[in-house]
């Protein structure tokens, strides 16, 4: 093999190794993007002030718990965080009175509570809007955090619970 052919072969091999290394780095970045965490934010709709932020993983669930103003019974709605938004998954109620959720074919009764399961409906616009009760305690439970949104700084405000996708850990 002549020296010129040897140098060409060496340049081709180096270019191939450089491209292979580049593809490995790109693949690692894509894997991190797919598994990246997101942040669930409770925001004041009027001021856009972020009142609470918590990192969540896709597939993680959270609850909104309150006392129904007409029925005077506890309600728990279960939501799931997905890459394309927030989905209603379950509703737990003691009755099906005025304004109570009732849609769904998969209903279970447990300890006097109707549990509507597998609702699997995307929240309109991917953002959950809540007006906390000023009469009864109103909670959002995310992981180990039980946020009483009927207390300050949430009380009296229209709130949005929204998903913010994080591109890098620590954002």
Automatic annotation (TrEMBL):
Q: Does the keyword Membrane apply?
A: yes
- InterPro entries, alphabetically? DUF1850 (IPR015001)
Q: Which residues cross the membrane?
A: 12-32
Q: Which domain of life is it from?
A: Bacteria
**Pfam families (UniProt xref):** DUF1850
**Keywords, A to Z?**
Membrane, Transmembrane, Transmembrane helix
Record-given protein name: DUF1850 domain-containing protein
Organism for this UniProt entry:
Jeotgalicoccus saudimassiliensis
